[in-house]
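Structure ticket #2291
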Amino acid sequence: MGPPTLQSPSASNASNLPTVTQLVGKWYITHTTSEVWHDKRNVVLTYTSLDPSASRPQLDDLITYQTLSSAKSKTMRGTDTPSPADPRAWTWRGNGMLKFVTSHWQILGFGEEDRGEDWLVVWAQKSIFTPAVLNVCTRHKEGMGVEWVEGMKELCKGMGDLQLEKAVENLYRVVHE
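Resolution: structure written out below.
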């Protein structure tokens, strides 16, 4: 399997996008540049459509994880609202104590592979709480192979986006057990 097809965060056209049906379900965050997950493991993102009949419904966004030193699972929940201007873009707003926190993210690439190795590459813009973040998500906790990840990193470096180029240098594998 070769490297993914990705689009620059500043690309004006949108191709290779998942449908909401393809987004719904469990995704393992297998690689990230986020400092938040360095001391965490088993980071799983679960999307649920809040209105399946809508053409671009909001998504319930549940993240579950464990610290490296504890068996107890923790959660973080928010709601993703699709951008009316860019079909790749979404705005996440936290629920509960996080209701004042927002994050803008977009899909740089998506693929469905023959062996069920679906993948999603997501770019979250810098917020007041976090730097810009690149996440690689897959439907299985093993993630994509080293060759695929290295190919994806090279594609990101060649997109002409300095923030993305800098971020991809800090991409690391998230622990999954």
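Closing remark: The chain is about 15% helix and 40% strand.
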